[in-house]
Write a structure and sequence with these properties.
homodimer, alpha+beta, Glycosyltransferase, Immunoglobulin-like, 3 domains, ten-stranded antiparallel sheet, seven-stranded antiparallel sheet, 14 helices, about 20% strand
Chain lengths: ~625, ~625
């Protein structure tokens, strides 16, 4: 969570989950599944994979061998963080008991000296704090802190907070400007420490975050020879000198979230400048249409500028979540809609594809094309899985869905800003507003003033997505001509009264998108988008996805299909399918052979990208040749 | 080396290096550099990287820590194998002394019980033969055997042969049908054992090769969770059931070479059938235009059908060499030119790009596109390197260049077959022929009969490359109309007399090639080829490679440039360059924005792909949009 209520350099203040109610609509359904299915599924998986057992071993409560990778504890913490968020609404007894069990294990596992990391306690006590590049002790601590802040804030339960504070005391007894200099190989603790500072106002936590940010990029971690040198660890250049987003995508995006958090509290312009440089590099050159980040399986990394392969896109679900976290902090720092735009793109596409409609299987890797064959190489299978050996993504999905309410709106002394059009009621000190919409299926959004404490004018600001050229605004049924707009927000400043209603209509008709000619994999292709949704062709709806071409002049017909994939708007288009079997057993031919020149007319059906791979495994493509 | 003089199932018999003289022309120069520069460079690198020191440690001749990966010994063996081949012509005293030193170290390192593997001797004596999947003991043994056979055959020196035989005795005391069942995680020993059998006629070596082939694919190695399960180790299906080429490319191609060797000796049709299925899958779906193999950095692996990214192509130099090895064995088994065609394609492109013109730097990864920026992620930098942490490729290049003479021709009782048009004199029992040509720069090839022992007719067979639609053949200056052709070979059967001359003219005018529409990265692109050479655009010759388009109707003008890159034929073409800066800081735009529609006319200059990256690092592309 991000609580910028007292952050001196926040342009806007965040809203707590306790002040937001999502009670219907698109995300309500997803959050119900998260609460009713995913959470207990996650706990079962944590039990089966050994995460809980590892903590038991650390607590000397049982015998056996440590199981799983070095960062097993972090999955427990992320799951606990999710439980805290979900419990703001309501939570079942089974989940509550499971969380009790997990918290008790975490408490029991902590050493008398404050140390807590089951891997090192069980497997390698003599290597504690000796493997900062790969050891993930501070990464796990970061997730522990985030869970602790969530439980403190939303459940009023400080057990994890006390555990966290004891670990940090242990850390600061060793690390610091006058002690040992070190930085974690996987950023995460930075953003967590700032949030803990916000929750406790304990300056030492902010200082520790600053310490970790300041010393990064001086080569302390050594290179990772296999996965891209120092860039892999975000250690190639000092944070303030960064010009590119590079290396391991999740590491990059967790770090930038933490650095932006630091700016929100300390206001150091050099930090924000570096963040904006990296952001511009990312959106200009290294981001997928889905908002997905990470072009390479090797090193789970950003690629070169315009290196955006479709089929071998990495686009880890955690990277989408990291991007949402970072963009939210940049939005609060700057008040610019481009960051909320990217949150929207990522939420509805590259993030949401990470979990099945049923809520019990997950994607680690979210490619933009699949040939529908069994994937024998690499971790990125093209069927969602119940869990992973490296299981960072599933509980990350759970905590993001649990905390979704935080991303809808913000406020300042001058008004209320609506960033995401999610049906909900949002309470701020100035006013309570209610958003009602069938978005993303419909472009009609109603925002009603349910309560207001202000007797003087204030501004209701509504994000106008970048893909919208012109939208219609009605105030109490009367169209507002040329509503004023600032930094991507339509701004309606006036004395507001309870019962007044703004109707916003976003034109969400399907549109075709092309990509920069330097992108190799999408040359000669278009993608279909509708509102915030990226669409794709999937084999379940189309006879031959791999040989299909889209007629770019085709009508794009929207069809609401209540019975398909939980209810979606499909898009019908004209195209052709070519017979590529005439190529025979070769990949290359003389240009004169001129095969594949024409095709047989066909009808194509596109579905939202997030909904793919919920039927039998089959081919899929976002980018379709024209 | 492959010596099929006595192989019962070889369609054709191979020619030994002692019967081949390459004394001028394209490859002569490359082999001079290999002999004069690469070999001593390699020895220095083996010294600096620790390979020799590791053997010294195993011999208890020094103190210190083992350095490098588990398969360090294999690089020494490959280098020694190269020395044996090169010494057939002539070799300097410095290299000879270096080889003496290396052989003495290998002898000294061997244990009294025959075991030899410096990693396990020094680092992990208790894990000998316990890590067959990752340990590389049998892989190293394979390379030792290949070096031993080369020294035995070409130097008449059996020191390495004796070392090898003692290791194998040690191996067979543990492994075998009635002892422990096991297979190596990295194939290589199979082909080596068959060659040792050929050199010694010791049936036990053939049986051991057969044993390793028979038990592969039954899951003995366990899955590799990170790099593609059992396919990574070539252990997903039994060899005889294989239908696809998959997993780690070098492992795949070394194994198929060994299996084909086994067929050459034993004639089991099921083995050859499996090889032909895998070969067809490879050339139909999984091979690059350069002959490069391996589409994925992750797992260094083959990808799905048509998954052939240009920029992130892996195309390890060793995989090109493995493919040449395999195709040579298939050629000897079947007598079909398609295998020699692929050897040619690979030799002149995907293999030769692996070494710089100066002979002292190497590519591990051979991509088909580079954006010319520093490569911060992954092992595959886009500048050739003096050596690598995993240094399999450089000595592999040296041994292939050293043994190149073996690939030129073959013979049988009915005649002589010319496979590669390399200026040379080739002696067979039937006749000695002399090939004179400026190929690949010129398509004119002269083959003269220098000696013949036959008084009755015999067939001179000349490969007609698949890219040739019609070539001109002259016999003693008179054109041969419609020369008979069989399985890709022009067959001239007659009584031959000394001094008779065949002139073959291959039309090598530049041509444009397109790729299958299912290949994502090359959509809308063409490649330029000329004779056996694949061409590319490099930044050194073109102002803007990344935004260039080729006019497909352009004249393709051949220009011999003696002073460029050691002397090459460049190809000049018309094209356009577009201003992509107008896209601004975004990767995606509405289709209507219609940017990049036209471009400024420009002259493009293409160079042979093998010669790229010999000037300052700069962008390169084989496939150019039209």
């Amino acid at each position: 969570m991000v609580d910028t209520a007292s952050s001196p350099f926040a342009r806007w203040r965040s809203v707590r989950l306790t002040d937001v109610q999502i009670a219907s609509g698109f995300w309500y359904s997803r959050r119900e599944i998260n609460r009713d299915i995913s959470l207990m599924h996650g706990f079962r998986m944590l039990s089966e994979a050994g995460n809980l057992q590892d903590l038991r071993l650390a607590a000397h409560a049982t015998d056996g061998d440590y199981r799983g990778p070095v960062f097993m504890d972090s999955d427990v913490y992320k799951w606990l963080e999710a439980v805290a968020y979900v419990s703001v609404d309501t939570i079942g007894a089974e989940v509550r008991e499971a969380a009790e069990q997990a918290i008790a294990l975490v408490q029991a596992a902590q050493q008398p000296d404050g140390y807590l990391d089951s891997y090192y306690q069980v497997v390698a006590p003599d290597r504690k704090w000796h493997e900062l590049n790969t050891g993930h002790e501070l990464y796990c601590l970061g997730h522990l802190i985030q869970a602790a802040v969530a439980w403190h804030t939303y459940v009023g339960d400080d057990r994890l907070l006390h555990v966290s504070q004891r670990v940090i005391e242990h850390v600061t007894s060793m690390f610091g400007p006058t002690r040992r200099i070190g930085v974690p190989g996987h950023p995460e603790v930075e953003t967590a420490l700032v949030e803990l500072y916000r929750a406790t106002r304990e300056r030492a936590y902010l200082d520790l975050a600053q310490f970790f940010v300041d010393h990064r990029g001086s080569g302390l971690l050594g290179p990772n020879p296999r996965f891209g040198g120092s860039a892999y660890y975000q250690d190639r250049v000092p944070v303030r000198e960064a010009t590119e987003i590079e290396g391991h995508a999740v590491r990059a995006l967790y770090l930038t979230a933490g650095v932006t958090d630091l700016f929100l509290e300390c206001g150091e312009q050099a930090l924000l400048d570096a963040m904006l440089r990296q952001w511009t590099d990312m959106v200009s050159h290294k981001l997928y249409l889905t908002g997905g980040a990470g072009s390479r399986h090797t090193g789970e990394a950003f690629g070169h500028a315009y290196e955006l392969p479709t089929e071998r896109a990495y686009c880890e679900t955690c990277a989408a979540i990291g991007s949402i976290m970072w963009n939210w902090r940049l939005l609060l720092a700057t008040g610019e809609a481009r960051f909320a735009d990217l949150i929207e793109r990522t939420l509805y596409n590259g993030f949401l594809s990470g979990v099945s409609l049923a809520g019990d299987t997950f994607f680690y890797v979210n490619p933009l094309m699949s040939r529908g064959q069994p994937e024998v190489v690499g971790r990125g299978v093209v069927q969602r899985q119940p869990w992973f050996t490296v299981a960072c993504c599933p509980p990350n999905v759970m905590r993001l869905l649990g905390s979704l309410g935080e991303y809808i709106a913000s406020h300042d002394d001058a008004g209320v800003q609506i960033h995401q059009y999610i049906s909900s009621t949002v309470r701020t000190p100035l006013a309570t507003v209610r958003i009602t919409t069938d978005y993303p299926w419909s472009g009609s959004i109603t925002i009603g003033v349910e309560a207001t404490t202000a007797s003087s004018p204030w501004a209701l600001q509504l994000r106008q997505p970048a893909w919208v050229s012109k939208c219609v605004v009605r105030l109490n049924s009367a169209e507002v001509e040329e509503p004023p707009s600032s930094q991507g927000y339509i701004t309606l400043e006036r004395e507001w009264h309870v019962g007044e209603v703004v109707e916003l209509t976003l034109p969400i008709a399907p549109r075709l998108t092309v990509s920069h000619p330097r992108v190799e994999s999408t040359r000669g292709c278009v993608a279909i988008e509708r509102g915030p949704l990226v669409y794709c062709l999937e084999g379940s709806d189309n006879a031959n996805v791999l040989d299909a071409r889209l007629d770019p002049d085709s009508e794009l017909a929207e069809v609401w299909q209540a019975d398909v994939l939980g209810g979606i708007t499909t898009i019908a288009a004209r195209g052709t399918v070519s017979d590529t079997t005439e190529w025979g057993p070769t990949t290359f031919r003389p240009r004169e052979s001129n095969l594949h020149a024409s095709g047989v007319p066909t009808n194509l059906t596109a579905i939202p990208y997030f909904a793919w791979a919920n039927r039998a495994p089959n081919p899929m493509r976002v980018w379709v040749p024209v």
